[in-house]
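Why do we care about 3D structure at all? Because function follows from shape, and shape follows, mostly, from sequence. That is the central idea of this module. The next example makes it concrete: a single protein chain, its amino acid sequence, and then its structure expressed as tokens.
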Amino acid sequence: MATTSDIRNGLCIKYNHDIYKIIEFLHVKPGKGPAFVRTKLKSVTNGKVIDNTFSAGHKLEDVRVETHKFQFLYNDGDFFHFMNQEDYSQIQLTKAALDKPELMKEGEVVTVIINSEDNAPLSVDMPASVILEITATEPGIKGNTATNATKAATVETGATIMVPLFINEGDKIKVETEKGTYKERIKE
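And the structure:
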């Protein structure tokens, strides 16, 4: 059993007859009244995100999990196929189990969280950032670096990301996976 003081990002808990992963939390200590924890929970079975508030000291039933490195192989519609880096076994996960499937390219190494009790994969943690190549965007104009203006660009995985005006087709960019936003251009 865990309490609200054990809450952290990535913690998996049993709540309302389902398993949820905490994706965001905030400890609040108001000047008047008891402390509480405001959380965002993502269901690992269907991908729905709910907001919930736990009072301070509330008991939570945590789920024992293991993490393993897997390599993304390919997707065939709604299923994404991964290979374990240690024993080369393969698993498939639904699109709902992934946080940002549109940013995942073949060969990417991710961390898969697996329930220790029944060896069922719960969720996939992507690296903090990924490097993707721009496949389609309007041409960049020299000198367009002074403003924060952006334009839409399609990357090699098919996702559309807002990038600065100076980015051209063929450029490689670093994308922050948590928010799905442009971080920087990669020079080679």
